[in-house]
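Q&A log
Question type: sequence-to-structure
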Amino acid sequence: MHLRHVAKKGAYSREFMENFYACSLCGYCKVVCPVELDTLKLFLNIRGELVEGALLPSRFADLLEKIYKYGNPWGLPNSIRSKWIKDLSLPLYEPGMEFLYYVGDIGSFDPRGIKVAKALGQVLSKLGISFGVLGEQEVCSGSEAFEIGERGLLEYLVTLNIKTFNKLKVRNIICLSPHSYNVFKNVYPSFGGKFNVVHYTSLVKELIEEGRLQFKERTTDKIIVTYHDPCFLGRWNGEYLAAREIIRMLPNVDLVEMKRNKENAFCCGGGGGNVYTGFGGGIFVETQNSPSRIRIKEAYETGAEILVVSCPSCILMFEDALKVEGLESKMIIKDISELILECL
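Response status: OK
Response body:
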C-alpha cells in the first residue's frame, strides 16, 4: 500500500509527514550510511507520494503554486527578471552564442542574489567568452519541484525549458546555482534535454588557468577566507576542487578550511525548498540548532574574515544566520564571483 493511502487513513500524524520536509536533502546521510542506502532517492520518492496525496505542508504547496503560475517562487511578474540585466547591458542569448548564462530565481529576484548574478556576469564578460542570458524568457529550472517531489510540475518546467533551449539552439549552459546545475545535468537528459552543463566555478577556473584574467597586486595584508561546500555541488555532483583552486589563484588570499569540509561539510539548511519556505532548517528558523547558525559559527571559528560560497541559496541562509548570531561586524559572506571581481 502506498504511503499516501496509509497516511490518509490516519496511520501517521501530520507532524510525522512534515518531518520529511524538514530535511534539506543535503546528502550527508547517504555518505555515512553503513549499508549504502540511496537515502536521497528514498526521500524523494516519499515526497512524491506525499505530493500526490496532497499531504505536503501548506507552505510548500503555496510555493509550488507560485512557480506554476508565475515561473518563480515569489509569484512575481517574469518581466522583473530582465531589470537587473539592463544595468550591465548583458546581451540576450541568440543562436550561435557559445554559452547560455542561466541565472535562476534567486539571482533574478532577490536583492542579494542579484548582486551575485551581476558579479558573475561581469566576470564572464571580462573572460571574453560569447554568452547571453534569457531575460524574460527564463523560468524556474524545476529544481524546487524536483526537491519537493512535485513530479508533474517538474515535467512541465523541464519540457518548457527544453523547448526554449532548443528553439534558441542552446548547446552549453553556465549555471549560477548548484540546484539548477543539478537538474540540468541529472534530470533533463531523461526528458531528452541533453546539454553541456557546467557550474560556473568549473568554467571560470579553467579560463583563469588559460590566462584569461589578470589580477591586480594587493598592497594590503593577506585576506583570510574559508569556503563552504554547497551540498548540491559537492555531495550531489562531486565537485569540491574548482572553487578552492580559484581561491588559491587570487592574490593575497589565504584559504583556511573548516573542520567539516568537502564530502563531510555541514549543510546551510536551505535545500529541499527550505530557503523559500523557512521550513525545517530554513532561513526563518531562529533556533540554535538551525543548520545555518551552526555552520556560520564553524566558519567564524577558523579565524577567517570572509566566508566564501558558490551558491545563492547559501548566501541567503548565512547572511541571515550572521545577523542572528551577532557576527555582522566580524565576518562577511561573499560569493566567489564577487571575490574574483575585487581582484581585477
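Response note: The two ends are 60 Å apart (CA to CA).
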